[in-house]
Amino acid sequence: MLEQKMPSITTRKYNSWCEKRALVCADQDKIRRATAFFTRHNLAPSERATFYIHELTNCEGLEFVAFSNTELRNTILLPYGVVLVPCFLSDIDGQSAQNPLVQLTMKMVGESRFIYDGWIPIQTWDEQNVRKAVRNIDEALSVFCLRGRTFFDWEPKYPAPDESTSIYKFESRHFQELEEITRILDSLGQGDRNALYRSLAWLSQGLRLNEPAARFFFSILAIESLATYIEEKAQDDSPLVVLRTRPFTEAEREKCIEDCLLENLQDNPTEAIRRAYFDCVVSITQQLKRHFRHVFQSDPELFTLLFEQKVEGKSLYDLRHDVAHGSADALSEVQRERIQQRVWDAEKVARRYILTVFETALGAQPFSKGIKAALWLGIQNSVVSSEDMYQGPTHMAVLYS
Predict the structure, then answer these.
(1) Residue 17: which region, alpha, beta or left (left: phi > 0; alpha: psi -120 to 50)?
(2) Where are the domains of the chain?
(3) Of 35, 86, 178, 320, which shows the fewest CB atoms inside 10 Å?
């Protein structure tokens, strides 16, 4: 039996503290109205989830789960009415070792990952106030980082279905192709080998992260790190130099500066000068553009996707500058969602680029065997018509630790 004293609040929650019940609703009209929020692309995922749960349960706020390496032994009230309730025991001395919550508390301590039940009240249910509430959670939790290497991550207790986890099913036939890639890498000189593994590491690290801006930026770094090595550092006897382009000529540099000034000088002189310097004088961007044109000269789709295809006025590389130079708002879920929508494109370009380097410069064959991916959505994120249809655990320490 999981027992813990919990605080009381005046606004209506769907769950008791540190509880996550199945969503129960037998009213099909209400379910249809709630599900309609999933098609609202002007809303960020947490906003869609917030409206969805409110429509189903008539709760008066957003219930969320928070994860942190910070141990808060008591319930705390943060700015904007944000409440955090520890879903673990503040003191296990004298407690029975057979108590499941004692064991789960010890597990959280060992992993430095504590589970909290979160709540923020919402008085007016319109787009502006729901968006403000979601941002207020981020703002309230972000200040903890000032006290040390502390972090808080959070998600709605009932996330939108499109946030389900993908499961990739590797089979023995896939390992033969991966072994061939490893064999080729091991046959290279140390500099080439390190450059390729460094690029793979950036892409791999990005896939492990949850924050869209970090995932996006790491995918771009996977491209830039390898392209810069090939253009500037690879030895002349390296097989990678077949992908190297000729240097930027003075005439090309002057033409680049002229184009940047013509395009931006009238509307934004500061941006015109910045683009002219970084795109043409320092020429990191132009070097990467020339490199991509050369690598994908028979298939310009990847060049177009990275530099020219714009979504809401931004190409992938425009978005890269926003993230790298800090002009993207990390606390705006709307902006994070816009970046999230481009993450797959960035990962696609990075993966295709690395594979093309293997194929063109190193003679490796592209992967020929597909891999199956599946989505999993637990019953606790689905709607059931009766409470009896779910007989599993409801305590958040069990569900999330």
Answers:
(1) beta
(2) 23-164+378-400, 193-248+283-363
(3) 178
